[in-house]
Structure formats: structure tokens, C-alpha cells
Amino acid sequence: MILTTHAVIGAAAASMVPEHPVLAFGVAFASHFAFDAIPHWHYPVASIIKDKKNPMNNDMVVGKHFIADVAVIGFDALLGIGISLAAFAYFLHVPYLLILIGALGGILPDPLQFVYWKFRRQPVKSLQRLHRLVHAKTDLDNRPLSGVTSQVCLILAAISVTALAMG
């Protein structure tokens, strides 16, 4: 799942517990794993080297594609934070800090994969195992139109459910 989707879902999850920012972060963080279990699309990241026999051996190489990949990933994360701020702060009047807590909590498990790839130590090793365990076994990577459409629908659903829940 792309970071934009994780950010919006994380912000939506955090919005459900506005009086408890630590719990809001935890719920947003957990939402990442719950939604990664749904088959989804990923944009290509040229720096990632996949080991099909053992995904725990995947890596992200700091090489010629790395800066471009980091720029795309950064744009993806910022887009998700921007959409979250626009939807939840402007339309639903959720506090900015809570939105940021949720969006960052929803995004964080993916950057922690990079930490795992570079250090391969606890506690990120166990977190990576969990990430691999819950991640959808099938993906929509060969069907970008379906993949992007499904994530747009998830974003709209997260915003709509939050709006309904907030009255």
C-alpha cells in the first residue's frame, strides 16, 4: 500500500481517540498492518532488491536509483499528510497535531523496514517479521489501474467513516 493511503487511514484512526494521543499513535501504527493485509498495489522502487526465497533478506541499496526513490517515497508521504490535513483539519476540525500523530503512525512501519534492512537487529527484526507475516500474499502490482483505484476508494472510505463517526 502506498504511504498516502497509510497516512490518511492513520489520521482517520487517530481521529477516533482524540483525547489520547499515545493511543491514537498506537491505533494508527496498528492500522498500517491491518490494511497491508488487503491485496494492494505498490509503485516500483528501483533501489529495493527482493529475495523471492526469503523476503527477510530483501534490501534497499543506496546506489544510483536511491535519491530518486527517496524523492518519490517522500512525495508520497507528504501527499498523504497533506490530504489528511485538508480532509480532517479543514472539513472535520480535527486538531493538526492529532492528524500528524495519526498520519506519521500510519506511515512509520514502512520506514522502519529500511532501518531493518540496514541494521537487522531487534526490535526492528521482529517488527519486520510481523510486517511480512500480515502483508497480503497477493498484490495488484501488475494491475495499476485497479490498484490505484482501490487505494483511492480506501482513502475516501476512511474520510467518510471518520466524518460519519464524528457526526
Characterization of the model:
The protein is an all-alpha fold. It has one domain (3-162). It has helices at residues 3-15, 21-36, 66-91, 96-107, 109-119, 124-134, 144-166; strands at 48-49, 59-60. The chain has a two-stranded antiparallel sheet with strand order 1-2. The radius of gyration is 16 Å and the shape is globular.
List keywords for this structure.
single chain, 167 residues, mainly alpha, two-stranded antiparallel ribbon, 7 helices, 2 strands, 67% helix, 2% strand
Task: Write the topology of this structure.
Elements: H1 3-15, H2 21-36, E1 48-49, E2 59-60, H3 66-91, H4 96-107, H5 109-119, H6 124-134, H7 144-166
Antiparallel strand pairs: 1-2
Shape: globular
Report the C-alpha radius of gyration, rounded: 16 Å
The run of helices and strands is: HHEEHHHHH
Please state the oligomeric state of the protein chains shown.
single chain
Amino-to-carboxy terminus distance: 29 Å
- Tell me the helix content: 55-70%
Number of strands: 2
Structural class: mainly alpha
Overall domain count: 1
> What topology, given as strand order, has the largest sheet?
1-2
Give me the number of helical elements. Answer: 7
The stretches of 5 or more residues where confidence is low (pLDDT under 50) are: none
Largest sheet, if any? 2 strands, antiparallel
Strand proportion, as a percent range, falls in under 5%
The overall pLDDT average reads: 96
